[in-house]
Design goal:
The protein is built from twelve helices and 14 strands. By secondary structure, the protein is an alpha/beta fold. The structure holds adenosine-5'-triphosphate and magnesium ion.
Length: about 325
């Protein structure tokens, strides 16, 4: 088990009378890329600002590598590299001079280390140009270089893909994964796009209206929406009668209890419903359909649905601040 890098417990924050972060707790491990995923205004940046000491906590606690950020600020910050909002840079200096400037504020950054990070973020051939000539993507890379110069154990990037083209996003993704998986850094990235988190992260924490709804590995999420579930839409003569029969059928199935929890019966109206079935019974659905017909439920149509995408699940989960879940 990897060690805990960031530990947040019962975090709360209000702005004026607005309660923005609501009792948020989560633990991030060394060696993982953790995605903080939520729609606009969910509270991602606010939480991140509290971790990096740009905002005070109202209640609760945050520890970075075992150090409390409020009680021992400097020591906690020594373990963090971060880009929150726009990284500060001197536009009239070259990329290299910016890094040298920054290195002076950090302990123990050697010239070799500077060259190493420049190489790592792929800026070697442009590092001696002035930053004002850089594109947004190049500035982002320089920001990452700056944030990892002192070899922090925790790297935090708020919406790192903003403004990057697809190739740039892929390169950034590879850099972050490499830092986490090969160097044991805990990388925290935020985003409002599931599709992006899916490719970049090992785990995601989903936040909506200041509440943490769920933390899952990407593997588990993908499995849950694709492999194990089959959604079948029915058009019948009597949906409520059908529900009784389907409930009974699934309850009596000889499959493990966990698979049974996948089962969901969603009624649309008197004649339409869809059912989410665990995948191992789909081949035997004819048995269920026969039962329905025998009970005089007319089967007008039966349509297997396309598997849902993670993005749809995320949008559904975070709608109305996650009311359906909480
Ligand atoms: N300084 C502030 N004063 C008052 N309200 C604030 C302040 N900063 C943030 N908020 C409010 O807190 C809520 C959360 O904002 P936050 O910036 O943390 O969201 P976010 O998840 O980062 O969203 P986005 O995806 O748009 O960046 C919003 O309703 C925002 O208006
Ligand atoms: Mg934000």
């Amino acid at each position: 088990m990897m060690e805990t890098a960031i530990k947040i417990q019962n975090l709360n924050k209000s702005f004026g009378k607005k309660h923005i972060i609501k009792d948020l707790s989560m633990e991030l491990k060394a060696g993982e890329v953790f995605g903080f995923l939520g729609p606009n205004g969910a509270g991602k940046t606010t939480t991140i600002k509290m971790i990096v000491g740009m905002l005070h906590l109202e209640s609760g606690s945050i520890e970075v590598c075992g150090v409390d950020v409020e009680k021992d600020f400097e020591k906690a910050m020594a373990n963090i590299g971060a880009i929150v909002e726009n990284p500060e840079m001197y536009k009239y200096l070259t990329g290299m001079d910016n890094l040298k400037q920054y290195a002076r504020m950090r302990k123990g950054v050697t010239k070799e280390r500077i060259d190493e990070v420049v190489e790592l973020v792929g800026l070697s051939n442009r590092i001696n140009e002035k930053v004002k000539k850089y594109s947004l993507g190049m500035r982002q890379r320089l920001g990452v270089a700056q944030a990892i110069l002192h070899k922090p154990k925790v790297l935090i990037l708020d919406e790192p893909s903003n403004g990057l083209d697809p190739a740039g996003i892929k390169q950034l993704r590879d850099i972050l994964k490499n830092l986490a998986h090969n160097e044991g850094v805990c990388v925290l990235v935020s985003s409002h796009l599931m599709s992006e988190m899916e490719l970049m992260c090992d785990r995601v924490g989903i936040i909506a209206e200041g509440k943490l709804l769920d933390i899952k590995t990407i593997d588990d999420m993908t499995r849950a929406v694709t492999a194990d579930v089959n959604v079948i839409a029915y058009h019948v003569t009597d949906a409520s009668k059908a529900k009784e029969i389907v409930d009974e059928y699934v309850a009596a199935l000889d499959i493990d209890e966990e698979s049974k929890t996948i089962y969901k019966f969603n009624v649309q109206d008197n004649e339409h419903f869809d059912v989410e079935f665990p995948v191992q019974i789909v081949d035997e659905l004819w048995k269920l359909n026969k039962k329905l017909a025998m009970a005089d439920v007319g089967l007008i149509s039966i349509c297997p649905q396309e598997n849902r995408k993670l993005e749809d699940v995320f949008i559904e989960m975070t709608a109305n601040g996650g009311d359906q879940i909480a």
